[in-house]
Structures are given as structure tokens and as C-alpha cells.
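Reading a protein record of the kind used here takes little practice once its layout is understood. An example of such a record is reproduced below.
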Amino acid sequence: MKALSLLGSTGSIGAQTLDVVRGLNAAGAEPCTVAVLAAHSNVPLLERQAREFRPQAVTLFDPAAAKDFKDRTRDLSIPVFSGIEGLCRAAAWETADVVLNAVVGMVGLRPTLAALGAKKPVALANKETLVAGGELVTRAARENHVPLLPVDSEHSAIFQCLRGNECSQVKRLLLTASGGPFFGKTREELANVTPEMALRHPNWSMGAKVTIDSATMMNKGLEVMEARWLFDLPVEKIQVVVHRESIVHSMVEYADNGVIAQLGAPDMRLPIQYALTYPNRLPCPAPELDLFQVGSLSFFPPDTEAFPCLSIAVEALRRGGLAPAAVNAANEQAVAAFLQGRIGFLEIPELAAGAAARQPDCSGADSLDAVLEADRAARQYVETQLNGR
């Protein structure tokens, strides 16, 4: 019996995680309980989840939402926490066997460190944790002898393809990308993209921020950064391949030029379950892959002229230090502004590149304070640019 602390339970990944938990419990092969549920502010959904799974505690990041939840669930007698302290408390919950971090944004970094500090295995769906704090997080995992288990479909695929082999034998990681809703568009054609257009992903159902990142291909740039830390390989050994069908989730090429791929339907429940049940493979609610229906698979090089976010992220990774944290924070702030209608689609990469350029090359990312300061400075840069118009 595994007890799960789920951070970000009301988001897309969180909801699918609970679907996986239902399936595991129905099958009875590897039953799972929910020790803690944590969300931002979606009280109605969190209440339904709490009444179904009866966690030992609940956290809402928004203090007003935490008060509302407590008022609505007095009959449950569940302790309710709030703020970043509540998230960290949920991440380090004593009875939790594994922590799945599906929080969106930089706010996920401190809970990840709290979980690792409490010697909890972390199933990681929060990109920013490794993008901004890769050095801190991987060091904490090593020092506390606990694993980081990837939940992103691409990194889960690579993780699966590496089983039984040595990283020293790896020639390249081939990280697949769907290309988003604007594959084949020129930079000129992207000038008038609206949030509604960018939110129409062809293959995946994701939260708004991740969907916009997919449209700009910043998502793939952030995943290159994650792969560098998860698999301890230099950026030169990580290649992005656009694969429109989202059937091949990623591949590993070895020294003998053999390529191993992981295929599956575009459904996040498979990588979520693999992280929760690793190293076991159990029946999963994700659909079977029908290769006859798929028919053919296609692969293309990424267009970094029309989608410069990928190059901006990779260059920040090459520079190292706090440049990745700056790119990540500026992008997060710029995406929020785009969704609010404050900036155009093509301004997102401009703001991310500008924030990275302001980050000194000599700066190090070896402390939480330094990472958080780089994050703050990049966000301030974006807001200054927006307010100066």
C-alpha cells in the first residue's frame, strides 16, 4: 500500500493522477491511498476530491480559499493548511510514501526540496523545479538517497528506454515534440495569434500555461533543461525532434547507433502510473495503442526561426548559472500577460531573451536564495517592459 501526497490535485495532471489511483485500487494489484491533497484555489473540485479520497490533510495555496474549504468541510474534520508553508508541509508529510508534484510554475521548487529533505521519492511533473533549480534539486536527491521519477511523457519515455543500460553508452537523447497548434506556420503568420488559437493543442489536454508553452515551443526548451539534470547529460547530447502524431514519446540512441523508443497513445495516465508504481508495470486506464489506426509516423526538425523560444532556452542552458531561472521566470510572466491580452504571441520569446541577457554569466545557481532572486529580477524585468509602453 502506497500513500501519496499530491501537489496540484485540481489541475490536469492532478486529476489524471487521481484517475490512476482509482484504477490501481480497482485492480487491487498495488493499492494506493491519498495522504495529502494540495491545490491553489479550486475549492469546489478539491472538496469533491477530499470527500472521495479522505486525505489526512489538505493544503490550499490561497489563504482565503483555505478558509472557504474549511468552512465547507467541517464535517470531515480534515486539517487545512495554506500558503507556501502549507505546500512544503504537504510535500514532507510524514506518512506519505511518494510525493507527486504537479504544481504549475516556480512555486513548485520549494515543495520539491522539502520532499527530498524529508527523504520522500518525488514523482516530478513540475518543470520549473529542474529548470530553475536543477543543481539544488539533484544534489538534494543524491544527499538524501531518494529518486526523482519523471512524470512528463517525454522524460518518462527516456527513463523507460534507459532501463537496463548505462548512461555512458548513450549517444543522444531524442526528445520528441508535437510542434503544437502552429506547426508549419511562418513567423509572419504567428503575429496575430490569439490566446484562444494558442490554447487549441492538436493532441494533448493540458493546463493553459503548458499549452501556451507548447505553442511557442518553450515547453520543449524547458524539457531539454530538465533532461540535462534528470539524466546527467550535456546539452550537446539532447536533440529535439518534431513528431506530429505524439505516439513516439521520446527515444534514446546508443553508441552502436541502435535507437530504443517508447510508444503509446497520447495519454498522461501511463507516465503518471509508471512513476507511482515503478519498477512495476500494471494495467492502466490509458487506452491501448492501435498501430493499424495510427498508420504512419512523421518526424521533422524544429523551426527555431518561427519558434525561437526553443533556441533561447537551449542557449540559457549552455550559459548555465542562473540564466535558465531567468528564462523560466520571464516566460512564466510573459505567458500570463499573453493570456490576459496584454502582449502579442511573438513578444513572449522577446521578453524571455531579454531577461536572460540581463543575467550575468558568472552567477551561480547553487543556493535557493540566488535562484529565487534571479526569478524575482526576471519577473520585474518583464513587468517593467510592459509598464514602460
The first strand starts at residue 2 and ends at 7.
